[in-house]
Amino acid sequence: MNILKFHSDEDFVQTGANLIASLLQSNPKAVLGLATGSSPVGVYAKLVEMHQKGLVSFSKATSFNLDEYIGLPVDHPQSYRSFMNEQLFNHIDIDSGQTHIPNGNAADMEAECLAYDKMLEENGPVDLQILGIGSNGHIGFNEPDANLSSKTHVVDLLEDTREANARFFDSLDEVPRQAITMGIGGILKARQILLLVRGAGKAEAIRNAVEGPITTQCPASLLQSHPNVIVLVDEGAGKWL
Ligand code: GLP
């Protein structure tokens, strides 16, 4: 793992955005794995800025998001489709037909999981997978557990995850109880992984992920088995590294 620690927020987001932009410059048809959550927001904003300056185009790119809540209307402000539209897709030249997010409202979720993996298989591998980390060490919505799923699957969200994400909703009650997420196997298939970690609240999770044992109790620790992972941490998140 290549761990880069930043003292300046500007350098953090510029480094993340440059990695994505240079991939697209060398391979305009790149397949991007995208994440939601607050961690990638600055990087997405920087990419929008670079796009507006004519420095990067997404017109031939394809994207796959990691996860989506189950049961939230797709146009709900907290759906991950709304998040991606607002933070990135609405401001760049990506073909909306090439942006994929699991459907959290599918009538048959099992079929949706299989269909998502099939699409990934047909379009993949993902060239660059962006990830955040939950304070419990989750990636995507792969929660700590005795066993982890390799494939896209439906997950019951842990209470601490629901509580962490409640800040985006009016109340804890409104936070969905389930999500659909790419599995660890799907995530690890990416050629390169860019893990973005910000804030002191993530210091323990990232230390466990990069220095602790590889264990399903810290799903992000499985990234240690991937040959090409870049981790960007800010001062808070990196204080114990
Ligand atoms: C969310 C998402 C993850 C994200 C993580 C951290 O629940 N499902 O993909 O990486 O939790 O979120 P944040 O960056 O807001 O701390």
From TrEMBL:
Catalyzes the reversible isomerization-deamination of glucosamine 6-phosphate (GlcN6P) to form fructose 6-phosphate (Fru6P) and ammonium ion. It catalyses: alpha-D-glucosamine 6-phosphate + H2O = beta-D-fructose 6-phosphate + NH4(+). It comes from Paenibacillus odorifer. The active site is at residues 67, 136, 138, 143. Residues 16-226 form the Glucosamine/galactosamine-6-phosphate isomerase domain. Its EC number is 3.5.99.6. Signal peptide: none annotated. InterPro entries: Glc/Gal-6P_isomerase, Glucosamine6P_isomerase, Glucosamine6P_isomerase_CS, NagB/RpiA_transferase-like. Keywords: Carbohydrate metabolism, Hydrolase. The keyword Hydrolase applies. PANTHER family: GLUCOSAMINE-6-PHOSPHATE ISOMERASE (PTHR11280:SF5). Pathway: Amino-sugar metabolism; N-acetylneuraminate degradation; D-fructose 6-phosphate from N-acetylneuraminate: step 5/5. SUPFAM superfamilies: NagB/RpiA/CoA transferase-like. It holds the Pfam family Glucosamine_iso. This is Glucosamine-6-phosphate deaminase. Belongs to the glucosamine/galactosamine-6-phosphate isomerase family. NagB subfamily.
